[in-house]
């Protein structure tokens, strides 16, 4: 946060937001399969989601 790479907020809030975003497609895997026809448990899907979470929260 001090370096400007993370949004400024209370750290515990950011931790829980990132944790929730990171785990959502895996805990809701059945819904993701039905709604989008995607299996989040495959390596390409897992890696794409990890990249998306980092892009959403970490600033350059």
Account of the protein in words:
The chain has 60 residues and is mainly α. Helices cover 67% and strands 0% of the residues.
Q: What sequence of helices (H) and strands (E) makes up the elements?
A: HHH
Mean of residue pLDDT?
Answer: 95
Main β-sheet description: none
Number of helices: 3
What is the tally of beta strands? 0
Structural class computed from helices and strand pairing: mainly alpha
Uncertain parts: none
Fraction in helix:
55-70%
Query: What separation lies between the terminal Cα atoms?
Result: 12 Å
Tell the overall outline.
elongated
Question: What proportion of the residues form beta strands (DSSP E)?
Answer: under 5%
Rg is 13 Å
In brief:
By secondary structure, this protein is mostly helical. Helices cover 67% and strands 0% of the residues.
Descriptive keywords:
single chain; 60 residues; mainly alpha; 3 helices; 0% strand; elongated
In terms of topology, how is this protein built?
Blueprint: H1 11-27, H2 29-36, H3 43-57
Helix pairs in contact: 1-2, 1-3
